[in-house]
Each structure stands twice: as C-alpha cells, then as structure tokens.
User: What shape does this take?
Amino acid sequence: MAINFDALVLGARIRHARRRSGATLADISERIGRPAPYLSQLENGKVEPKLSLLIELADAMGTDTSDLLSSEPPDRRSELEIGVARAQEDPRYVALGLPYLKPSAKVGDDVLEHVVALWNQLSEREDAPAETPDQRRFADQARAANVGLRTEMRGRDNYFAEIEDVARASLERAGYSGSGPISERVLTEVAASQGFTIERVGTIPRTARSITDTRDKIIFIPDRGGLRIRQARSVVLQTLGHFVLEHRDTTDFGDYLRQRIESNYFAAAVLAPEAPAVEFLREAQAQRDISVEDLKEVFYVSYEMAAHRFTNLATKHLGIPCHFLRTDSEGVINKAYENDGIAFPEAEDGGLEGLRVPRQWGSRQAWNAHGSFLLHSQFTVCDQGEYFCTTYIETETDRSPHAISLGTTAAYASVFRGADTLRREFARGSEIEPDPQLVGEWRDIAWPSAAERGHVLSALPPSEREFSPFPGIDLLDVYRFLERQRRSRGR
Assistant: This one.
C-alpha cells in the first residue's frame, strides 16, 4: 500500500536521515536489498514507497518511521529545493521556456532563495484580484485624509492644547510628581484611572500591537520577549488614549487616521509631560544644545516619539519652526510634517507618502555617513532657503531600518547640537535636475540591476525621473558613477 504524503518532502526527509547517518545510497541499497537508482528516485520525490519499505529504511538509517513521515522539510536547504522543484512544475513557469534548474550542491542557497522568493511574489501578484472601484475610492479618501490632517497640523503648529489638558489631568490623578519621566507605577495608575489593567501575554496576533478586552477592561500586550520596555509603555498609552479621548468605532479613514494621531499624541504627552519637557528644552535652548537624543533618554521614549514630541512643543513654547520626516533607506517618505516652509516632494493631489526626497537631503545622506554613531547632521540649501537637520537611523524596530529626520531653517540652527557641522549639501532645482549632457551620454548605455530588498519584487519607489525604465534605481547616481569610471580610465 502506498503512503499518501508529499513525495518531495518525504524524499527530502529520507535523504536528510541518510546523510545524518553517514550512509551512502550504495550502503542503504546493500542493507535493504533495493537498487541505488531506485533509492535516488525515492529521494528526489519521483516515486512513493510502501509502508513496509519506509520501516526498512528507518531501521537501516537508525531513525523512526514517524520522523520520515513528518510533513515539514528537514532543513532550510531542503525547503528551498522543494520550492524550486514545485515552481518548475507550474504550467506558468513552464510557459516561460526557461532551462531546468537542478538544485545541485554547486547551486548556492542564495540562488535558491532568489528563485523561490521571485516565484512566490510573481504567483501572489498574478493571483491577486485586480483593484476594485471601491478600493481605488478608499485609496483616494486615504490620500485626501492625509493631506487634510497635515494641513491642520501645520496650521496649529502641531500643538493640541485639548489633548495636553487631558494628559495633564490623567497624570495628576495618577499622582505624578510633576518632574522627570513617569514611573511604571504612574503608568499603571493612569490605566487604572480608566478602569483598565495591563496584562502581558506570550503572543498576540501579529497584525495587532495590543488587544483590549473592553468588558473585563484588560489591555493585552506581548511579553518582554516580543516587545521592548520603551515600546510597551508607548503601546499601552496609545491604546489607552482611544478610551481616554472617547474615540468611537469608525469606518471612515479620515476619522481613523485622526484617532491614531490623537492617541499617539496622548501617549507622548503622558510619557514626556508638557511642563517638564518644555523646561528641559528651554534650558537646552539657552545652552544652544537642543538634542532629540537627550529628550529621548531623559523621558525614556523612542527617538521617533521624542522627535514628534519636539514638533508638538517647539513652535508653541520655543518659537522654533521645524520639520519632521520618516523615510526608508532609499529616502521614500512614509510620514512627514513641516511648518518651516521646506518643500517636500508632492504628488498632484498633495500627497507625500511613497515619494522620494532628493539624494542631497539628510534622510538619504545619513545612510552613507561616516564619523558618527547613528546621528548625521547637515545643512541643505534648497530653493526655499537653507535648512539644518539631524537624522537618526532607527535599527531597533520591528519594521525595516528607517531614518528619522528633524530639522529647521538655518536661522534657528545655532541652538541645536550638531550645528557646528561642516556638511553642506545643495538641493536646489539646478542641482536636483539632471544634466542633459550626462543623461544623453549614458541613458541608452547604462543597465543597472536593482539592489535586493527585504521582499523581492515588493513595491519599488518610483525612479527619480520619468524617463527611467528601472523602478527603484537612482539613474543619476548610476550615470555619475559611469562618468567617473570613464574619466578614471582617461577616455
């Protein structure tokens, strides 16, 4: 009787068990009286054995039948080999007319990783349903909501007096002393004042930061193995903020986004209370030594939250206009704020998300900077004027590493740490626009291959110029590289 198990997985487990026992195909052939070519076919998933043969194989290799019959590949290499084999059996793959790729020992794991990842992404994209009119309408609403809220935040200098009042009252009820960072006891009391307790659990669904039982008034968060202490404090207060601010269920993206902004603001206003935070910043301003890094450490929050908190307080209390950016390693924007006049890249509908800042900006320069630890300060000359910014590369995160930039106009730079930097980049229109001669020289010659990303074939940022046939590639950098190589050869 044949065994109804995945032949490829079964074959991989047999091969793994044989190699682990130190036996060759010839050894096993001699022990059980089966020809080596048949055993090779078995290990390659070409034939399915009877149960009696599996028992003999297990005895010959010193393992259990249950181990051979496990449904999981025995190791990552086997999993990749199985993935490549299955891909090449797919009619869509066959239709490509590619030569068969045999995953022999000479083929490295990295090659197999690429093939499997590419095929999985292509299959998912092909299987994904086309965007519906409702989805397009939702996306338009989301962009409009982002633009509207950003305009509102700029108009009020990102200062929400009503939320500051709620946070202050919550801290007073919790017995906060009025100076320095809040203690764990105060955090617990803030939650308790709303009737909530906080419970750490081993795991929660990956798509959730926290889960709240509104009946028993429990906020569940991952234990310390899944959530760092700074993150945990923020997540608890961001969750609690929805209830303190009396948010209601909504199906409107604009309301949803506003609620997220307000609950995040509440969390920052509790963790870095207005009065002591302003006092701290004013002292730093007087000493011409303002640093988001110091704000982060004094109030025990993340760098991103400290930068956000600075934007809440800087214009209202210090008279300093500012801008904030969060971008990925390629300078693609996923969050931004400004009231200092800096011109972010902007789509026709006013949206910023998904666009890429110029290569001269600190958000991109910081990734290649030397001589500093995670922090990069520079001046940038734009058409609107000159700006100073400090960029922090955030690596301790569940997301991919990203850059947090906080800046202001050059007129206010002297009160910030790092303003003595000699780094100055020029990002005016004349510097950003491509040199027509350079483009004409190399556009039909250069053929770059995009750098690997965390998810192969994931959405790539648009190229910096409409003429680019290479999504995600900075063609001007490519052309400049080729030009330097040509000059170095004296041609």
